[in-house]
Amino acid sequence: MAEALGLSGRLQVPEYSCSYVVSRPVYSELAWEQQHERRLQERRTLRERLATSCSCSRKRALHAVKTLLPILEWLPKYRIKEWLLSDIISGVSTGLVATLQGMAYALLAAVPVGFGLYSAFFPILTYFIFGTSRHISVGPFPVVSLMVGSVVLNMAPDEQFISNETTVNTTMIDFEARDKARVLIASTLTLLVGIIQLIFGGLQVGFIVRYLADPLIGGFTTAAAFQVLVSQLKIVLNVPTKNYNGILSIIYTLVEIFQNIGITNIADCIAGLLTIFICMAVKELNDRFKHKIPIPIPIEVIVTIIATAISYGANLEKNYNAGIVKSIPRGFLPPVLPPVNLFSEMMTASFSIAVVAYAIAVSVGKVYATKYDYAIDGNQEFVAFGISNIFSGFFSCFVATTALSRTAVQESTGGKTQVAGILSAVIVLISIVALGKLLEPLQKSVLAGVVIANLKGMFMQVCDVPRLWRQNKIDAVIWVFTCLSSIILGLDLGLLAGLMFALLTVVLRVQFPSWSNLGSFPSTDIYKSTKIYKTIEEPEGVKILKFSSPIFYGNIDGFKKSIKSTVGFDAVRVYNKRLKALRKIQKLIKKGQLRATKNGIVSDAGTSNNAFEPDEDIEDPEELDIPTKEIEIQVDWNSDLPVKVNVPKVPIHSLVLDCGAVSFVDIVGVRSLRMIVKEFRRIDVTVYFSSLQDHVIQKLEQCGFFDESIRKDIFFLTVHDAVLYLLNQVKSREAQDSILETISLIQDCKDPLELMEAELIEEELDVQDEAMRRLAS
């Protein structure tokens, strides 16, 4: 069977029976433009552009309204009979999970648990109207909640709220004042983040998320998972620690946790560990049997109900001093305008939170948009989350984005549209209005266990590092660097450091680009790297360089080095050495030791006894300029010279630059290209360009690259066009040299018989010359 499939021996390479033959002229850019007229580019003034963009029509106005309010696009097309039941089931399931996660993530944001319910409710109301994703579940997310918590703890630490009842042995904290201040700070930060996101959406800068590459996001979220784990570990153990923030805060927190581990509350520890173990085990079952289980088991809800009942029945707070939720606000607080005077203190952190929250939401949204074949608008998502966070900021919420686990529940239970999201908000609303009192006996360690159990997916990203290392080592280094910097420096500085490092790798890759020396396969127009293929041939006297990068001020030195490596010599050094040799030859001619003839330099005094001179490079070649008549001395630079000057050999007559991968050039690149053409021309090497894109040629024209000495006839459509042209030129030149040599012999002969033979030869050469002219044309 294996032999029949071609698997018994070597890999079977498919053979293609089809082939093609193309017959066309050799095209330079100049010849192509003369034969094919360019389409004129219409240049409009700024006033004309503004007039076009600001013009309004009914169709354009309707499109603008639907773009700003996507609900007008999808809600009229809602299929009630097909989608409503699925959305109801999904909404109820997602609402139960959102209720528990909202309470749990409030611990990360350093605000009372009840305010997590508000953060799971209000953002959904506005995203339902302005959002473009049909499947994401809007609300708190652990990474963003932790970033909010770091700002809150930094601006409102416990030390600022020491009660007047503090004694020498005990420190009393005014928890009510502290919680009130922290809620105010969190809501102010949410308002500022929303304003920033709304501005970004208005400026159409949704592309900013492209700079947060997948390896960077993976390393950052993994580091955030470690930060979340440490912050929740002290709640699971119920040990007192200071609220550290900034550089090495995770290390200081771990040290203090282990210093106080002897006073761990056993009831809280057992409840937290059981919650982690049960939730992770059931989630694993949900993943393994998701095709057989129609609805994932809402294990967080089940564990929370059981834990609340046990805590209430055993009175764990009184009997075992367990930490419980205690009080959950019933109903809603009136909207409050956050103090804008705090904006200056949280401006830096708000930028990173705004971008991270948006990046997480868009990346999750794109996954499901691709799966279900619809598109999300990145700029509109900025607007949607900006409005959601501004609206939520007035109702004592913290920053909202989307949670991966909650979104997975909404999609896997059959959610089709954001109707499921609004129904999940109804479930959260019921919890706020009616069920909040029932959850007051719940242990905080259970909520911390729920948080930790949901970190499994982020921790599993560590397994991506070996795969990244095999595929792309730079991406693996970005992942590790971002993760370590976020753990050591904190999430905000770590994200900035990771972003700067990722951009630095891009700069380095552009500054030190890839290039290759090309050769052709016999009887084809296919050119590949000479280092990769064995059966490849280089045209005699020709070097072909493919440069795979833009040519600009940052990598122009690398471009010049690639040329030197390809041709095997430095054109400037060769020119300087030739000038030096010409000066010595000039001196020897004046002394009568050498004689200049039509055929080159002839020695009259035997071998020169001049001592070998060291090869210093000439610093200023213009000082050694020789008059034109003396430069026209015929010297074969690739043969032995009558003077002892080490002039590098130049084994080529043409250099072809394949610029098909050059996406742009700047003014420094244009000047350098002009200089390269002139430097090689001085040593009798012609530089040709091929495969340039039209906009690059236009940039060369704008920068004054072309003049009388550098014309477009050295630019060709393809590498093969350039090679065919220059080889034809070489053959034509060789034929002309042969003709001139024969004519010289004819003029030197004196015998009449020889003269008649010479005339016949001259007539035959004239015929050959005419044939070569036709071939050249």
TrEMBL record:
Pfam family, one: STAS
Annotated localization: Membrane
Keywords on record: Membrane, Transmembrane, Transmembrane helix
Listed NCBIfam families: sulP
Protein name per its UniProtKB record: Pendrin
Domain STAS intervals: 532-726
GO cellular component: membrane
Membrane-spanning intervals of the chain: 83-100, 106-130, 184-209, 257-281, 293-314, 349-370, 382-405, 417-435, 476-504
Keyword Membrane belongs to the record: yes
CDD domains registered for this protein in UniProt: STAS_SulP_like_sulfate_transporter (cd07042)
Topology of the protein relative to the lipid bilayer: Multi-pass membrane protein
Entry-linked SUPFAM superfamilies: SpoIIaa-like (SSF52091)
Superkingdom as given in the UniProt entry: Eukaryota
GO molecular function: secondary active sulfate transmembrane transporter activity
